[in-house]
């Protein structure tokens, strides 16, 4: 039965296929036998990894092994403070990694919580409440409003059944269900109206169904299987730091060995050279790099929280910086998730409605003229139907900082009435606009849009219901596609009806035209249908409005009697409008070289219309439906995916295929979503982004980033932050490694020239401590350059030293080494035979090396030159440099420290040599960068320029 097309089967075919009495249900014996074959109706969590294993896995990283080696060497040298610091770094990284992976393990447990704990079933003709895990294929289940569907079921009978399936399909509007067979062969999940899916919620009505799939065979089970079998991507930062760690250890050890060998060959004591070599090795490996990276990421996380983005997986912050494609859900992320009436048609007139969301603020405009109800009775009648044939309400809520403790009150509160009385005959309360107030929907989104429409013109349900009391309701169902209410009022009794225009027109014999009730002729019907088609072609959801007056003695026994001889009034077209800020954010992405792709469970026409409004779908850009995607191989999809900007009516498997196809094309993919259906693709994406407000626990557990405001523009802010974090990481890598190269080459050049050691081991370690910590950390929180979001994203496989970073490190390191050695040699040669001159020269070398690195740190703030940015802009860096200078001076001028660090105070001549030598590397490279920039501009010519989009972010 695995490939049975359940949606196509009739009731009799269901009975025969499942071998069950649809009236009596299964017997206990049959159910037990079936359970042995089908298994328990539960979702598997897959292979569990113990917390101990997760913790031990954190110590397998290559950089961690390097740090362990550095700890051992520091301990052997007696540098216990260094050893303790490195151990603390290792433990901190292990804890962070453990917490992140342990959270990921919880995603499937969150998915299991969506399963219903109990189910109402028929067993041997008797109703019983059983644990949902005991259900088997063939069980007859009964559901009502508020129930979570316990398994995948085929509906046998329905009564006004609506099911909220957004967790599975992504559609926010509840789906009307029926029990009729569907003839089509391949039907998307969102269109399988005769099937209920495990974990979805019944929002209205009652139904009886037969279980067709249980456990891991359900649609929810397929998602669980996808989550289990989807590997999380290693972030580019993790990969590059692993690569960097390997390079550093081999380069540092190689150069250190060369220094030691050269020193011994030139007559230096072997023991002294060994100690100097070990000190140099410890200093050359930037053991603080992982800690500084972690701190930079953590501080970036704090900044992102302020911008409404919550990071769950620390290393993935940087991944945002190289995102080249954002796959975004439509509803709630690109749109407001608030259905809004934008167009009204009546009497041949097209009316525009301003305002969006559920705030009753806006106007109705005809040819730019504001309409008034006093002079437009047809419009008044239209709005009365909108407000009275309706079960929704909009709630005024006081918005606090978190908006999670809202005290709702209906628009008909007495305090409102007392605040402002209306003189209109409908006694409607006007809405006061307050900055501290938000408006929320209670009920169906479509009905909420109609309530809001009426409220904008002063007709609130509260005021109307005081004059129009409801006698009867004929609820909407998928067969009639309409809803009606019977109300009585001072003038008599009236039926108000709303529904699908193509169906409602057939129930109407008259139309309200130019203020009069006239026969609904063929010509007028054609005008209504043309208006309906025009609105639908703009991706609007269209509802028709009608009414009829009821005689005092008339009995309205059923909907068929009520919904006949109606008077057609008009059409209301509504849409979930785009977020105001989303268009600007998408334009920013485009300038930054990032493509936005819409992936939605909504219909293609609606998705394309919104995509065009937002600027996602360019001219020549293609759209693809889930049905078309299902008929394509991976190879065919890979060939077309670059040109597709909108994917509609897609399933969870489709979303996963789209993400993997983009990754195969070399893209770094960010994937957003809120439903369970998004979880596999979110987990597979390079960075998964979940919605904080509408997102399910499953989606949040699978994600790396959570948007606390469900807003697309927040993603763009997070990308900017991610780019800045990576740029800052490159800055302090450039700074640390250039400094370390300078230290090694100072010693190496001295040994090759047969000079004495320019630095003793304790000085090497102190330089490492003074210059590596605070300045590097301050670079990690540096402000972004102004054109950060004007560059293309970097490649995901780009080397950490790409774009001349390696050259900058080596060239600055060589200059620092040469200038330090030059200052040492000049001081040594000033009085080569004088006792204590070597210690003075070593003190000059020590001061020069520290100062050269501290001046160089300002050059690292810009990818251009030191003259490009204000050196005092980063106050943390200024403080760090001053602190490092104080620490340097302390070991030179505090007498008890001088014998320990082998230093002496310097005179004016020595300080002059030291300061000039320290400034030369940065000055030369700065002038060279400025000269090179001018030369490039002259080469390009006055009329030519390089577009910003051809640059790359650092």
What does this structure look like?
- The protein is of the alpha+beta class and 954 residues long.
- The protein folds into 4 domains: 1-229, Calcium-transporting ATPase, cytoplasmic transduction domain A; 236-305 and 719-940, Calcium-transporting ATPase, transmembrane domain; 312-335 and 579-710, HAD superfamily/HAD-like (Rossmann fold), CATH 3.40.50; 349-518 and 533-573, Calcium-transporting ATPase, cytoplasmic domain N, CATH 3.40.1110.
- 46% of the residues lie in helices and 17% in strands.
- The strands form 4 sheets. Strands 10, 11, 12, 13, 17, 18, 19, 20, 21, 22 and 23 form an 11-stranded mixed beta sheet that branches. An 8-stranded mixed beta sheet has the order 8-29-28-27-9-24-26-25, with helices on both faces. Strands 1, 2, 3, 4, 5, 6 and 7 form a 7-stranded antiparallel beta sheet that branches.
- Helix 10 (270-284) packs parallel to helix 28 (761-772) and helix 28 (761-772) packs antiparallel against helix 32 (875-893).
- The chain is elongated and about 125 Å long.
List keywords for this structure.
17% strand; Rossmann fold; 34 helices; 29 strands; Calcium-transporting ATPase, transmembrane domain; elongated; 8-stranded mixed beta sheet; single chain; Calcium-transporting ATPase, cytoplasmic transduction domain A; 11-stranded mixed beta sheet; alpha+beta; 4 domains; 954 residues
């Amino acid at each position: 039965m695995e490939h049975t097309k359940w949606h196509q089967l009739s009731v009799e075919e269901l009975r025969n296929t499942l071998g069950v009495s649809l009236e009596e249900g299964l017997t206990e014996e049959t159910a037990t036998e079936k359970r042995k074959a089908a298994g328990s109706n539960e979702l598997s969590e897959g292979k569990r990894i113990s917390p101990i294993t997760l913790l031990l896995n954190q110590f397998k990283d290559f950089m961690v092994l390097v740090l362990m080696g550095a700890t051992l060497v520091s301990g052997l040298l007696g540098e216990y403070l260094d050893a303790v610091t490195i151990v603390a770094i290792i433990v901190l990284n292990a804890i962070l990694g453990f917490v992140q992976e342990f959270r990921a393990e919880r995603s499937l447990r969150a998915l299991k919580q969506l399963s219903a704990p109990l189910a109402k079933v028929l067993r041997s003709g008797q109703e019983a409440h059983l644990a949902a895990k005991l259900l088997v294929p063939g069980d007859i289940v009964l559901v009502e409003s508020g129930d979570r569907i316990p398994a995948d079921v085929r509906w046998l009978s329905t009564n006004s059944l609506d099911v909220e399936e957004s967790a599975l399909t992504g559609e926010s509007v509840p789906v009307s269900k029926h029990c009729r067979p569907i003839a089509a062969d391949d039907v998307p999940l969102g269109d399988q109206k005769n099937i209920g899916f495990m974990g979805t919620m019944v929002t209205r009505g009652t139904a009886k169904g037969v279980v067709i799939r249980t456990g891991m065979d359900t649609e929810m089970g397929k998602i669980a299987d996808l989550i289990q079998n989807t590997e999380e991507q290693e972030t580019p930062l993790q990969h590059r730091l692993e690569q960097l760690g390997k390079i550093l250890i081999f380069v540092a050890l190689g150069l250190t060995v060369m220094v030691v060998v050269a020193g011994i060959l030139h007559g230096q004591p072997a023991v002294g050279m060994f100690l100097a070599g070990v000190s140099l090795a410890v200093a050359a490996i930037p053991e603080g790099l992982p800690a500084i990276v972690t701190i930079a990421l953590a501080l970036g996380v704090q900044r992102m929280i302020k911008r409404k983005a919550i990071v769950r997986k620390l290393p993935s912050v940087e991944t945002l910086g190289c995102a080249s494609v954002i796959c975004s859900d439509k509803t709630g992320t690109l749109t407001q998730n608030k259905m809004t009436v934008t167009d009204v048609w009546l009497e041949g007139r097209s009316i525009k409605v301003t305002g969006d969301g559920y705030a009753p603020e806006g106007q109705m405009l005809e040819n730019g003229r504001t309409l008034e109800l006093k002079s437009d009775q047809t419009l008044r009648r239209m709005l009365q139907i909108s407000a009275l044939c309706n079960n929704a309400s909009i709630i005024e809520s006081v918005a606090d900082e978190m908006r999670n403790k809202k005290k709702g009150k209906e628009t008909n509160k007495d305090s409102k009435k007392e605040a402002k009385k209306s003189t209109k005959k409908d006694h409607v309360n006007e809405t006061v606009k307050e900055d501290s107030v938000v408006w929320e929907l209670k009920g169906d989104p479509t009905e909420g849009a109609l309530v809001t429409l009426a409220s904008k013109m002063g007709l609130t349900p509260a005021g109307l219901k005081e004059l129009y009391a409801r006698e009867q309701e004929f609820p909407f169902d998928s067969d009639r596609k309409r809803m009606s209410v019977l109300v009585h009022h001072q003038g008599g009794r009236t039926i108000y009806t709303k529904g699908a225009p193509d169906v409602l027109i057939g129930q109407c014999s008259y139309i309200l035209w130019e203020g009069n009730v006239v026969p609904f002729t063929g010509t007028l019907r054609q005008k209504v249908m043309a208006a309906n088609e025009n609105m639908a072609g703009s991706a609007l959801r269209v509802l028709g409005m009608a009414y009829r007056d009821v005689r005092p003695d008339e009995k309205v026994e059923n909907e068929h009697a009520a919904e006949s001889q109606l008077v057609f009034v008009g059409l209301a077209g509504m849409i979930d409008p785009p977020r105001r800020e989303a268009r600007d954010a998408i334009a920013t992405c485009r300038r930054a070289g990032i493509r936005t792709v819409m992936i939605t469970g909504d219909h293609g026409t609606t998705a394309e219309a919104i995509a065009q409004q937002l600027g996602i779908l360019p001219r020549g850009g293609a759209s693809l439906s889930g049905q078309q995607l299902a008929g394509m191989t991976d190879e065919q999809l890979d060939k077309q995916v670059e040109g597709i900007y909108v994917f509609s009516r897609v399933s969870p498997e489709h979303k996963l295929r789209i993400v993997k196809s983009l990754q195969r094309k070399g893209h770094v993919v960010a994937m957003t979503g809120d439903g369970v259906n998004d979880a596999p693709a979110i987990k597979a994406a390079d960075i998964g982004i979940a919605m904080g407000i509408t997102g399910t626990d499953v989606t949040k557990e699978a994600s790396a980033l959570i948007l606390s405001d469900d807003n697309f523009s927040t993603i763009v802010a997070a990308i900017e932050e991610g780019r800045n974090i990576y740029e800052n990481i490159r800055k302090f890598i450039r700074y640390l490694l250039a400094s370390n190269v300078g230290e090694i080459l100072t010693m190496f050049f001295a040994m090759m020239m047969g000079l004495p050691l320019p630095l003793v081991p304790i000085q090497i370690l102190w330089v490492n401590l003074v210059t590596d910590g605070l300045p590097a950390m301050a670079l990690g929180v540096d402000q972004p350059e102004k054109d950060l979001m004007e560059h293309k994203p970097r490649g995901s496989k780009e080397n950490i030293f790409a774009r001349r970073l390696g050259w900058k490190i080596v060239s600055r390191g060589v200059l620092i080494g040469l200038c330090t050695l030059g200052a040492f040699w000049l001081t040594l040669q000033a009085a080569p035979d004088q006792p204590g001159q070597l210690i003075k020269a070593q003190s000059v070398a020590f001061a020069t090396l520290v100062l050269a690195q501290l001046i160089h740190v300002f050059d690292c703030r810009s990818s251009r030159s030191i003259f490009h940015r204000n050196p005092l802009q980063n106050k943390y860096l200024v403080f760090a440099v001053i602190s490092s200078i104080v620490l340097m001076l302390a070991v030179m001028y505090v007498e008890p420290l001088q014998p320990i660090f082998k230093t002496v105070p310097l005179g004016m001549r020595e300080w002059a040599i030291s300061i000039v030598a320290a400034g030369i590397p940065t000055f030369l490279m700065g002038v060279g960068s400025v000269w090179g920039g001018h030369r490039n501009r002259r080469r390009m010519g006055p009329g030519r320029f390089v577009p910003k989009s051809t640059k790359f972010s650092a």
